[in-house]
Amino acid sequence: MRARRFRVSQLDADVIHVTGPEAVHALRVLRLEVGAPVELFDGRGAEVQGRIVATQPDSFDVRAERVRPGPVEGWGLVLAVAAPKGERGDWMVEKCAELGARAIVLIETKRGLVVPGEGKLARWRRKASEAAKQSGHSHLLEIGDPVPIARVGEIAQTSVGFFGDLSTDAASLIDSLQQLRGTGVAPGRAVIYIGSEGGWTDEETGLLRTIGARAVRMAGGVLRVETAAVCAASAWAGVFLNQDDQPTV
How much is the pTM? Predict the structure, then answer.
């Protein structure tokens, strides 16, 4: 029987008590019973493999059989993105979470028209949690509240940065990531900045260059916001994840 995955807040016990929506889904939808194998993760890198040893109407207990405190930290990807229109953000969040991105920071740009409200942010966070369960990642994709691009320097702290640019003389994103991986610098955080479908203003590209971000091309043509984000996450996963000398997320 395939072990089902559930997100919990704490994993520091030999027997872990699971409550809330995760427990209801496990017991009433999946109809798991005593003896069923499960995997629990906290969204911060720690995981527990075990079996259900007791059930209650709205909760269950898992005895830990194998504990993984969390992988050694490697490079982590942050996508600083102007929110896409309509429901296209749902797809963006799901796929970027499946590909192992660590966070999405929603930036308010001059030509961006979308500022997601609390309802949409809550839905995206639920989708990120579901994607982590489905894909087997132990880190949860974090989605922060929107921030004005004027505060982009706060995102850039202790990180390497790249921003999408259509200029023909911009380096390709894949080449830039491969060069980063080959530098041997200490692992840390990388931020890829993706503007709205109207593009960056000259003032915004100047600001991004000021904080040290480098211009990169992601494809041969113009991409929608959500496509560019998934393209960036895919390139990142291909270069950094599941390598012998880099931990998986």
Answer: 0.77
